[in-house]
Amino acid sequence: MLLVRHQSLDDMVRAEIERGTCQIVEIASGLSGRSLRMLESYPDHGLRYIEADLPRMIKWKRDRLTPAQKQDPRLTLCDLNILRLNGAMSLPAVLEQHVDPARPVLVITEGLVNYFRLSVIQDFWARLQAKLSVYPRSTYLFEIWPRLPAYTESRMLKLGLAAIELLTRQRVPLHFADEQEIAAAMKATGFRQVQVINPDESERGRQFGALHKSLFRLVKAEN
Predict the structure, then answer these.
(1) Which of 20, 104, 129, 142 is the most exposed place for a label (fewest CB within 10 A)?
(2) How many structural domains are present in the chain?
């Protein structure tokens, strides 16, 4: 299921690059290797890729880049804490320092939204939308795990969720009940166009056949 999530987001990122987006900001990029894959796949698109995460993760990743990757001017690794409203490591600081406001931009988060309480993540969405509104075209891609009926119908899924909470030492909040609630919440923060995608209905999801039923949704929000 996580492979479907990751590869489906890759497909959506490629689609944005191919329609002319040349600046990508991946927030809470973690262990993702998406930046290197995209820079390798699109060497002639004038692509600029900014990875942003907490300092410890950025240091860990920077230490593992090859000398050539460290010297690649298309790739930037920078510190970011989404809870900071201003100043160093804040979202405004990262965007103002690394992103050209005259060019289209794509923002990605993967594995971030359900790490926080809904009120916290909605505040982040509103701040992100406000900052992205100055760009000629801006898109935000992310995945979200809603409170789907499968969680109450399946004992195995309940146990799986409990195991994740035990490992992370925190509750995993499931946000919203369906696609309509997700879209309405994103529009309430200011995004004008919102598309909520069931990955099982996508080309990538169909490749996995009936082996799984996705419990997350992919979201594309545009200003």
Answers:
(1) 20
(2) 1
